[in-house]
Amino acid sequence: MAAAGGARSGRRLWVDCGPRRVQALRDEPHGLEILVWRLAVGWGGRSTGAAGWVLPIAVVERRGGRTRWRPVPDLTLAAQALGLAAAAWVALRPRRARAARQRGG
Amino acid sequence: MAEQRNEQAEEVADDGSGYATLASGLARLDAVARAEAAVGTPRSVGERTVIPLAEVYYGAGFGLGQGRAPASSEGGSGMGGGGGFGGRVRPVAVVDVGPEGVRVRPVFDASAIGLALVTVGLATLARLWRRPNPRH
User: Fold this and answer.
1) Domain boundaries defined on chain B
2) Does B120 sit within 8 Å of A50, measured CB to CB?
3) What's the predicted TM-score (pTM) here?
């Protein structure tokens, strides 16, 4: 799942994005894997830098022949996203209502 | 992908810009955001095992510049550079493995959630207390 934008030709910019599986616990015949999402960007040249982000998204449990998936709940991220959406809605709502009134009459 | 980054570091070094050490260090720095970095070391207590899960992010950048005074003047040349790094690890959840099975327990970060609520509150107050437009 790695996409290297320009990494092969000029190697000035690379992007590595996609899901990864990490073996967290191995107790045969059971096993526990964590599915994480990874995004990393880097650039090079006269200035060089990199930025990355890794977020666990699911827990995969293997017990015998069965596989169970459990999402990783991120209450903080959910609350922040809701807060941001609510703030944007509060900030933009009157403008839209005024624009609708002007269009109507 | 790691090979590509090492190639990138070598290429920067080939530029003759003199910051090969920084570039190769940056290639290694990317290891901070490996997928494994989000999964903590399992700890066993009695029959239970807990595995912490975290969100990891980082950013780093380095730059270098050099210049030379015009030939008409008596000035010389100079060079300078700078860089910075920042990163954060935020606990997200804990995997609890016990005799009854696996449970994923979320971590409640009251400070971050409180800040989100304050943001909404401030946005609402700013909208409510805004002066009416005198033209309408």
Assistant:
1) 2-69+76-128
2) no
3) 0.69
